[in-house]
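Entry for the shared binder. Reason: the reviewer on the internal report wants the predicted structure included alongside the sequence.
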Amino acid sequence: MTSYREKDIATSYNTTILILRGWINYFGKYNASAIKYTLDCVERRIVKWAM
């Protein structure tokens, strides 16, 4: 068992998503090809983690 409650994990996750969304919106305007490469890397890591 961990010391984290579901609410704590959800709050942390939501905060991270908001930060990423802002980062993607900002940098996506100015250099879409770079953001695509970065998001592809993030997606591969998430898939690897989920397996």
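Summary line for the report: The two ends are 21 Å apart (CA to CA).
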